[in-house]
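Quick log. Single chain, no ligands specified.
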Amino acid sequence: LGPAAVAGALNLRGRIVTAINTSACLGFAADPARPAEAAISVVVEHRGELYSLVVDAVGEVMPLEVAALEANPPTLDPAWRDISCGVHKLKERLMVVLDIARLLDRVVAVPA
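-> predicted structure:
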């Protein structure tokens, strides 16, 4: 009975962690050709709780200069704009930087 983006729960060293289907949060349709076993969990802490962000893949991990973060372009989809902190210019493309706290606040009910 949880939100559609909640994929389930997992046990991480004795702690129950809510698994979030990041593709569903971002509005991507499930790829039926991609096996579920290929997914990767990236564990983050938010408001004192652990969450597993289920992603298709992890690319390059890179440091980013805070000063180089630019505002979202006006052409960015409004749904993405609401969960993005801005963009970084890479050599041949823009990288949208997700605000994980905002993303999780949209999916998980915040206690009053």
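DSSP finds three helices and six strands in the chain.
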